Amino acid sequence: MGILKQSDYADVQRVGIPRALLYHRYGVLWETLFAELGREVVLSRETDRALVAEGEALSVDESCLASKVYMGHAASLVGACDALFVPSFANLGHRKGFCTKFQALPDMVANTLRDRDVRVVSCLVDERGERLGMREAFMGLAERFGANPREAKRVWKAASRAQERACRATAEAQERQLAALEAAGAGGGAGDALAEQPLTIVVVAHPYLAHDPYLGGSVTDPLKRLGAVVLYADEMDRWRAFKASLEFSETLQWIVNRELIGALTLLHNKVDGVVLLSAFPCGPDSMTDDAIMRCIQGKPILNLTIDAQSGTAGLETRIESFVDILRYQKSGGYVHG
User: Fold this and answer.
1) How many CA atoms lie within 13 A of 277 on its CB side?
2) Can you list the domains of the chain with their CATH numbers?
3) What residue stretches are annotated with the DUF2229 domain (predicted)?
């Protein structure tokens, strides 16, 4: 029936991980897990124009930019490892789903690269349908690499704790940054004194955009060059953000979008402006970004969509104009009711 047997990954020694999509959310977990299993992790290089072009050539036109970039990363690892690690993420429970591309990713990679003799290592995270949470999915994966149940449990604990520490450290670092801004008087004062304070801008974007130097860097780098303090919605405490999102919508299906919206509501009164950043043509973002624009008001919002085009002049012009508007407003140029 095509069902793989226990320990069918035991011979895999070098595991390739594309540095795209959910790697930017769970990368610490994955790398720690394979290191605890005694495997060598091979990461694809940082995103560049060549990887984007390769992924675009391998993908259908209707794929979103993030999926195309992932294909470029996956293809770049062919021949550099024994197998590619491509997990399937469906959901983490009720109202905690992922976009369908994350669930279909192993099949997409295996079929797209079928002529390149690629072996795909995978596991399924489906808390609702298969009743396989993260713990069960990755302990099962460890056993397929040859670990016994006790060893698999140890490996999972080490990996999950490393991920938790990394998330906590990131959230605490941003909280300290916010506290420092507040202590320095960001948000207080008036007129020229207020205008001299640095602008604080929150970037609301999936981690695979916000923290990819090539994709998100086309937005965050100009903001920083213009003197703005950049915060990231995905770096808020995830549980706090999720709870806050329930006040915005009880029916929103996508876990990452939920966290981003919740984080934005928590940061809204602490920032001067908001940048919504999406990859063309992301379905979930097209709905949630529109909801944000309509329902979360009181702060200027710049809504940006990036695609596979290499030119950034128009993008930088919009960012510069947005920063000028924020500075003018901060100096008292605009008054909102």
Assistant:
1) 30
2) 14-162 (3.40.50), 184-330 (3.40.50)
3) 14-234
